[in-house]
Amino acid sequence: MTDLQKLISEITQLNIIKAAFSVPYKKDELVKCTLRPMGEKYQFESFTKTQAFHENVEKNGLCNKIISLLTDSFRQAEIFTEEYVYGIKISSKGKVLHNRRRNTDVKKEDSNHNREKNHIIDLDNAPPVLCDIGVIGKDGKIINSRYDKYKQICRFVEFIDDVVKKDPREEYNIIDFGCGKSYLTFICYHYMTEIANKKVNIVGLDLKKKVIEDCNALAIKYGYDSLKFLCMDIKDYNPEVRPDMVIALHACDVATDYALYNAYRWQADYIFSVPCCQHEMNGKVKSDDFSLLCDYGLLKERFSALATDALRGKYLEFCGYSVDVLEFIDIEHSPKNVLIRAKRTTKINDKKRKLIKDRIDSFTKEFNANLCFGSLVFQNCKEFEAGNEKYSLVVGKSSMLLKDALTVRNAVFGNEQNYKAGSSRDKDDDTAWFAGIYDKEGRAVATSRMIYLEEKNERLLGKIAVLADYRKFGFGSVMLSALENIAKEENATKLFVNAQKGALGFYEKLGYEKCGNSYTEEDIEMIPVSKEV
Question: Which of 14, 107, 333, 450 is the most exposed place for a label (fewest CB within 10 A)?
């Protein structure tokens, strides 16, 4: 045994808190490396000038890994234990120089990450399915290599519990996008049904056919009747009922954007997302005034990840959600540790929405950061001029648009026409697309909506209302055109409108034709019209 092997063998018998390796043999390769405990393993993070690499090593392989680093990559190391710091240096002639000093810089603390705390899900109440998916072993204990996954499970349940215990509803419809092997999907089902005592319907979506087959088999095995898994992309999925919660954990790159956008489209009350692999911005980001952020590959990558998630948070606020960005799990357990938690709210108005958009526009202009989620959201938000004044058209699904729609409807249908059916809110408002037009002061001046009919490829447009002072600007056709574009994107084939008789000419100019007998509703004659998309 060499001197180096003997020294490292002795040190690795101790409780190592951290280590740093420096002074590389070859200057054009690795520049430094760090070590930190991670459960019962150790994580090595190695750096070149532009990239970072991670490797997890079991404790029984720790000695050989450190010897390899000091033999092939680095001349110096500092290894920290709770009591001492060991300094090691390899001379140019290969001699091992070392010293030891008291560790006065690092507080003595328990670094054993297996030390248990009180979790909502623990070994006593964990569902047996965790054994099938490899988190818990046959001995009833957490498998060492899956301890990080167990930590994620526990933390995720805490986030879910934070909202569920404050929400009075008794039943939840949940979609889990990119569910993979469904560690968290099964746990969520178990928590909802066995701990929170809620009724729940969960759909897990993933693109891997074999994974979906295995998950469905486990759901059947354990009698999880309200849990099913589908092999499909979230972009192609249309839920049968509006989801209360959408989960997207570690959906790669723009897949996260589609998950967030569809959660907004479906008007999910809660969104939980842990983004992953933010390549989109990293591939296009550039800046003249802040170019130093883009000069180094590693820093550019980290900046792009943070900036992407900051923008996603603001896009969600623009869509009518309150947003928290939280640490999902300690970074030593996973580098993907940012969780975006969003809750649908009515606490937003057009003035605030414009301020949010101005901040987003300023940032995206500086860093060339026109991202997928923003494109999906802002494709239905544009400014235009009418009568020498500026107006904005907003198309979407949000509490703000519904609230403003009811204000305009009440003014037009309620006060002017005494038409209660037109002014009132109904169940279709919960899932409808709205088009609203706002003046320069942010006041809603026109509204319309599009709802889904029983035939999946058919839509009903209507409740078109424009305040009296704004009826000369063609706002009705502007809104209808915007909603028709949404219908085309959703592959609708036919559009219907129940038109008031006095507005029949307006619809005929837009290509609609009579398709049924007229009828009277609250003394107002209505004529059904339709057109092919």
Answer: 107
